[in-house]
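User: Reviewer 2 asked us to show a designed sequence for the structure in our supplementary figure. I'm pasting the structure tokens here. Could you produce the per-position amino acids so we can include them in the response letter?
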């Protein structure tokens, strides 16, 4: 395994373990805590739904990229996707959301572990980053989680 690939797999794996441990340790009443306010506020449970749906979608985009495509389709509306997915998963219990997240994440870790250096340098499309090398797109897998966990921790520590 290429050293860069190995590093990415290690980071994704360790961040996965941290994320799942964090969510498993939440008290039942914390799931309804609002983290993001505004027109469409998100609770901790809705953020987990978002993370699960994003991971599943990334599986599709990674498959496309590894098959020679560009990843995210051109014109992919990330905000509409997130709103639609979080609403659709609104009644799914946290334990099931964690299971779905973990299943998709393990699949993505396995796929990333097979990526070579030339693949990591190839440009692809990410809904947030735009056109970027696959190495940066893969980093967003764990950075995305870190951002949301940071925000949740801030709210819980207030």
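Assistant: Here is a per-position design you can include in the supplement:
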């Amino acid at each position: 395994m290429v050293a860069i690939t190995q590093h990415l797999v290690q980071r994704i794996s360790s961040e996965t373990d941290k994320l799942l441990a964090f969510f498993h340790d939440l008290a039942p009443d914390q799931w309804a805590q609002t983290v993001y306010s505004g027109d469409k506020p998100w609770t901790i449970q809705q953020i987990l739904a978002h993370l699960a749906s994003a991971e599943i979608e990334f599986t599709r985009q990674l498959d496309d990229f590894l098959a020679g495509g560009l990843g995210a389709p051109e014109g992919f509306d990330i905000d509409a996707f997130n709103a639609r997915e979080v609403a659709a998963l609104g009644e799914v219990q946290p334990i099931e959301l964690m299971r779905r997240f973990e299943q998709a994440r393990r699949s993505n870790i396995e796929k990333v572990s097979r990526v070579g250096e030339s693949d990591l340098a190839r440009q692809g499309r990410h809904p947030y980053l735009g056109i970027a090398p696959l190495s940066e797109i893969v980093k967003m897998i764990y950075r995305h989680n870190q951002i949301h966990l940071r925000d949740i921790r801030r709210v819980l520590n207030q």
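For the response letter, you might also mention the following. Residues 3-25+36-156 form a domain with the Four Helix Bundle (Hemerythrin (Met), subunit A) fold (CATH 1.20.120.450). The chain is about 65% helix and 10% strand.
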